[in-house]
Amino acid sequence: MYVFDTAKHHAPHIHVRYNEFRAVIGIPEGDRLDGELPVRQMKLLQAWVELHRDALMADWFLAVNGQTPLKIDPLR
């Protein structure tokens, strides 16, 4: 998640990196807005988004208002 990152994707979203793959994932649904991820990693990520939906949305509102998002436990 990047501060003031609303130029291309106006909806709440996160940026994801996995090896050589990059994707932009929407919050709260976990839908892929851009890029690619392997199927298995995408399913894991969608489960992670569901578990952390409230924290992700709170961080989105911080970020679009120029504040630093809080840390959320990564997908392991």
Descriptive notes:
It holds the Pfam family DUF4160. The chain is an alpha+beta fold. The chain has a domain at 13-64. It has two helices and three strands. It has helices at residues 39-51, 53-64, and strands at 13-18, 21-26, 32-35. The radius of gyration is 12 Å and the shape is globular. The two termini are 18 Å apart.
Protein topology:
Blueprint: E1 13-18, E2 21-26, E3 32-35, H1 39-51, H2 53-64
Antiparallel strand pairs: 1-2, 2-3
Main features:
76 residues; alpha+beta; 2 helices
Distance between the termini: 18 Å
Q: Radius of gyration over alpha carbons?
A: 12 Å
The biggest beta sheet is recorded as: 3 strands, antiparallel
Helix content: 25-40%
Shape annotation: globular
The overall strand count is 3
Low-confidence stretches: none
SSE pattern, N- to C-terminal: EEEHH
β-strand percent reads 15-25%
State the helix count.
Answer: 2
Structural class comes to alpha+beta
Order of strands, main sheet, comes to: 1-2-3
The chain-level mean pLDDT equals 89
